[in-house]
Write a structure and sequence with these properties.
Largest sheet: none
Distance between the termini: 41 Å
Number of helices: 3
Helix content: over 70%
Structural class: mainly alpha
Order of helices and strands: HHH
Shape: globular
Strand content: under 5%
Radius of gyration: 15 Å
Length: 88
C-alpha cells in the first residue's frame, strides 16, 4: 500500500488536464461557473463509481478523479486571480 498521496505521473496528469482545459475554454468568469464545472465532473465520477465491475471501471474512475482534481485547481486559479472580494 502506498504511503504517499499522488505519484508524479498522477500529479502531472492533473496539471496537464487543468492547463489544457484553461487553454481550451479560457478562465472561469465566476465562482458559480467554477463550481458548476466542478460539480459536473463530480457527477461524472459518481456515474463511473456506480457502474458495475467491469474491465474499464477503474480506468473510468481514475480519469474522472483526474478531471475533478483539475477542475478544483481551475477554481483555485480563478479565486487566486481575481480581485479580492470579486470571486462571485
Amino acid at each position: 500500500m502506498a504511503t504517499e498521496i499522488g505519484n508524479k505521473e498522477t500529479l502531472a496528469a492533473i496539471l496537464i488536464e487543468a492547463q489544457e482545459a484553461l487553454q481550451r475554454f479560457g478562465p472561469h468568469h465566476s465562482a458559480h461557473e467554477s463550481y458548476a464545472v466542478l460539480l459536473e465532473e463530480v457527477d461524472e465520477l459518481w456515474d463511473a463509481v456506480r457502474r458495475k465491475q467491469g474491465p474499464n471501471r477503474d480506468e473510468a474512475m481514475r480519469k474522472e478523479c483526474i478531471q475533478v482534481a483539475a477542475m478544483a485547481l481551475r477554481m483555485l486559479h480563478f479565486i487566486d486571480n481575481v480581485a479580492p472580494g470579486q470571486a462571485t
